[in-house]
Design a protein that fits this description.
5-stranded parallel β-sheet, 11 helices, binds N-carbamoyl-L-aspartate, alpha/beta
């Protein structure tokens, strides 16, 4: 579906709403508010604004980082989580819920288990709606923070985003973060995607064709080692077990990606990304913690960067620029005792 380019007063439903200049503008705004994410000042630019946060599916970092971003810009947040605690449990339609809650807030962040549901929500809302994940559909704010992070990681190595080779591993069928990432990357830069998915969890054919139509290379690999060989970065994802058809469990042995695979591929320096959560149960077929001391580990840079990106999303939706934000930044008397790594500083 075609949505208008992302800007003030707009819903954010899909990464297709970004062209290169819009993306650059959002990243510049994220850079401008980075000091707030680093607790180097406090800000009241969204004083009086209210965020309605509606998560009808489990979430930790997405919900908390959206809510923290709004609060750190000086706004207020109301929140509801799960169907049980909302009137949807009484059979209320998406449209009625959307119309009602949009009467109370200035912007809504919505996550829902059904693909397309957040767009339905937006259609009935009287304020902008941000898609925080619609089933196996899209997760645009995650892709934005992923590309922002990838750009920073590559810049630290003297590379740009152009002509990047990205290995993408895991559940490529139901993983919405992968769908948004490939769409956002694939439309803008000459990329090579080296894909590896367990049988049955391959990338949907329309996404493969879309990437190829945009002039990118898509290489389907038979193993993880093959896919990470020669890649600049790897993006690993959890098996979305909650979306598998009933009666199927998906792979449940060994690691998706571990240190020895990177050793075999002679690529221990690769940038390592994951949207998280990482399934840390033994044999869960996810990213092994034995890569955590490798120099390219960027998974917590992604989560930290999410705050600045989500601040930039709210400022854009509410029509506030970097200068207006800067004018409301104050020193804070309290001490933030943060132990940032080099990237965050
Ligand atoms: C992802 C999601 O919910 O799609 N998590 C997130 O938002 N960072 C990925 C996942 O659940 O595996």
């Amino acid at each position: 579906m075609d949505y208008p380019l992302f800007g003030p007063g707009r819903h954010l439903l899909s990464v297709s709403q970004f062209d290169k200049p819009r993306l650059r503008a959002l990243f510049d705004l994220a850079d401008a508010v980075r000091p707030l994410a680093l607790r180097q000042g406090v800000c009241t630019v969204l004083d009086g604004a209210m965020l309605g946060s509606l998560f009808f599916e489990p979430s930790t970092r997405t919900r908390l980082s959206f809510e923290s971003a709004f609060l750190r810009l000086g706004g207020e947040v109301t929140t509801t989580t799960g169907f049980t605690f909302s009137s949807m449990a009484k059979g209320e339609s998406i449209a009625d819920t959307a119309r009602v809650v949009s009467g109370y807030s200035d912007v809504l962040v919505v996550r829902h288990p059904d693909e397309g549901s957040v767009a339905q929500f937006a259609a009935a809302s009287i304020v902008p709606v941000i898609n925080a994940g619609d089933g196996a559909g899209e997760h645009p704010s995650q892709a934005l923070l992923d590309v922002y992070t990838l750009e920073r990681e590559l810049a630290a190595r003297g590379h740009g985003l152009d002509e990047v080779t990205l290995a993408i591993l895991g559940d490529l069928k139901y993983g919405r973060t992968v769908h948004s990432l490939i769409r956002l990357m694939g439309q803008r830069w000459g990329c090579t995607f080296r894909l590896f998915a367990p049988t049955g969890l391959e990338l949907p054919a329309e996404l493969v064709s879309e990437a190829i139509e945009h002039g990118h290379r898509v290489i389907v690999c038979d193993s993880v080692v093959e896919s990470v060989t020669g890649a600049d970065a790897v993006y690993a994802t959890r098996v979305q077990r909650e979306r598998l058809p009933e009666g199927t469990d998906g792979p449940a042995v060994g690691d998706l990606l571990n240190r020895s695979m990177l050793e075999k591929a002679h690529n221990l320096d690769i940038v390592i990304m994951h949207p998280l959560p990482r399934d840390s149960r033994p044999g869960a077929f996810d990213l092994s913690p034995d890569v955590d001391d490798l120099p390219g580990l960027a998974i917590f840079h992604q989560t930290d960067n999410g705050l600045a990106i989500r601040m930039a999303i709210f400022l854009t939706v509410l029509g506030v620029d970097a200068e207006q934000t800067r004018l409301t930044i104050k020193q804070r008397p309290w001490k933030a005792d943060l132990h940032w790594d080099e990237d965050a500083e």
